[in-house]
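Support case: EPZ complex. Customer-provided input:
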Amino acid sequence: MKLKIEGGVRLTGEVDIIGAKNSALPIMAATLLTTGKNILHNIPDLKDVHTMMSMLEVFGAKLKLKKNILQVTIDELNHIDPPEDQVKQMRASFLVAGPLLARLGKIRIPLPGGCQIGSRPVDLHLKGFQALGAKVASEHGYVELESKGLKGASIYLDLPTVTGTENIMMAAVLAKGKTEIINAAKEPEVVDLANALNKMGAKIKGAGTDRIEIEGVDALSPIEYTIIPDRIEAGTFLVAGAITGGEVTIRGARKEHLGAVLGKLEEMGHKIEAEDDKITIVAKSVGKACDITTAPYPGFPTDMQALFASLLGVSKGTSVITETIFDRRFGFVDELVRMGANMKVQGNTLIVVGVKRYSGASVTAGDLRAGAALIMAGLNADGITEISGLEHIERGYESIDKKLKLLGAKVSIEL
Ligand code: EPZ
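Agent response - structure generated as follows:
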């Protein structure tokens, strides 16, 4: 399967933004902490969500996803270990570790491997579990977690790890006493998980700041909850408007989650009109170059780095992009160079010299956001671009071809 794009169309119109993948995954894992029926709204129908659904089924959950509403019913939890292939398939599956340690007191889970964007250690997750009193033993690519009852602790994170903060939070909510997480991640998805856990009856304060306090409780109840919109999908469609010199409105995104992205688009000279639940970009035909350094929230999101590299590749002047979060997140560069880009990797920095326009070519997506970057380039390119590796793109975007067509793009899926 390939995505085929005939570039050069100025995109115009409105699209609705789906629920945040990186909120759905931890909140789905958190349902393991409850007994009964949870109803989650605004759940995106994505491959990663289906992977997490099959992971929860392994532990005995009954699930149904229909029109972006996910029902997760937990009666009895099966005391078995998560299957290796599923954890390997999606790193975020490791998010079941915290809830299962809290609920079952014992779990043997495969260590998630690295992936295309870099080595993805979980040492800070394990350090947190250990601080809460769990015995942690890793061997043969597995880690065994065991505890006779978790106790609150003060945990300092060397790095503000997003899923590390989330995993430790989910283990601590049923621990005896008080836990504090220092240097916690502040992403909106961490706040969304804390809000969902509090609705289940947890006692969490400070989510969204670098210091989170958790008072352990005895049990949590199932919830009905609506997750936040996906700020990366929102950013994707704003970049699609920018790279085609178009006028695109995204509905349902939260302006306050997009500060760095909107700031950079304005720095490039594009006009942004933001109201409460909709944001419009009125793009210049060619944006100005600007420098970008990725950072933990509220800094510039690493997940938007490849898309902005694409956009800066056809902007006026030279830009310097520095990636500080992952060690292999420039995998898309060679493919963009095949489309006529003039960019060069130097360590964790990418030097981008803007060219007039990309030229269509057949290219391969190596990971989710690299695939999105190639789509952006194809929308701009002179001629036809064919993108393979759609399985990566489907992990994070719900029928992106249909949404782009809504905006006037000449896009089709070729078998
Ligand atoms: C989350 O990954 C997101 N995934 C990523 O999105 C996102 O790119 C990343 O945060 C950064 O914003 C989910 O939320 C499911 P980290 P995560 O732990 O939690 C190092 C997507 O496809 N680190 O914040 O894995 C790590 O190596 C993905 O949507 C340790 O050293 O990222 C990295 O350099 C791509 N030890 C840095 O911290 C640890 O124990 C940040 O990683 C944990 C992390």
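The chain has two domains: 2-18+230-414, 21-215.

Case will auto-close in a few days if no follow-up is received.
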